[in-house]
Amino acid sequence: MIYILVGAAGMVGALLRYYLGIFAGGWWDYTFPMGTFLANMIGSFTLGYVTTYIFQMKKIHSMAATAIGTGMIGSFTTFSTFSVETVDLLTHSHLVLALVYVLGSMFGGLFMSWAGFTIGKQQLNLYKRKGV
Questions:
Q1: How confident is the prediction along the chain (132 residues), in pLDDT tens digits per residue?
Q2: Model-level pTM greater than 0.85?
Q3: Contact 51, 114 (CB under 8 A)
Q4: Which of 43, 63, 82, 94 has the fewest CB atoms within 10 Å around its CB?
Q5: Residues 16-31, buried b or exposed e (16+ Cβ, 10 A)?
Q6: What does the DSSP 8-state code read for residue 131?
């Protein structure tokens, strides 16, 4: 059953990333791969948040948590596309953009994960104090 849940959630995450790429392509007409960058930033924040707050409340079944974390968020974010887009920027002599993309993705992803973790931890503490 877990395989079906992770697969179905992965399909949802992949489609969300695809639509985000289409949306970003509609308003971002520059060389910088904004769609993938946004997907990775949103995914980093979301995974930090849900693993710290939502999943810790134990109100979500462990199979659903795996489906959301590994399936949906895992397929929404993408290291392989990030890598290919970086190589593409480098092969087209966009060295500064490639550096901005790599550093922005690395530090931005870490920051967004930390932000999701921090906000999730604060909400979890509030939840625990209320004794719900």
A1: 999 999 999 999 999 999 999 999 888 888 999 999 999 999 999 999 999 998 888 888 999 999 999 999 999 998 999 999 999 999 999 999 999 999 999 999 999 999 999 999 999 999 888 875
A2: yes
A3: no
A4: 63
A5: bbeebbeebeeeeeee
A6: T
Calpha distance 1→58 (Å, rounded): 20
**Of 46, 102, 99, 98, the residue nearest 79 (C-alpha):** 102
What is the rounded distance in angstroms from the CA atom of residue 106 to the CA atom of residue 108? 6
3-class secondary structure per residue, 20-82:
HHHHHHHHCCCCCCHHHHHHHHHHHHHHHHHHHHHHHHCCCCHHHHHHHHHHHHHHHCCHHHH
Q: Which residue has the tokens 């995450």?
A: 13
- Cβ pair 67, 13 in contact under 8 A: no
Query: Letter for the amino acid at 15?
Result: L
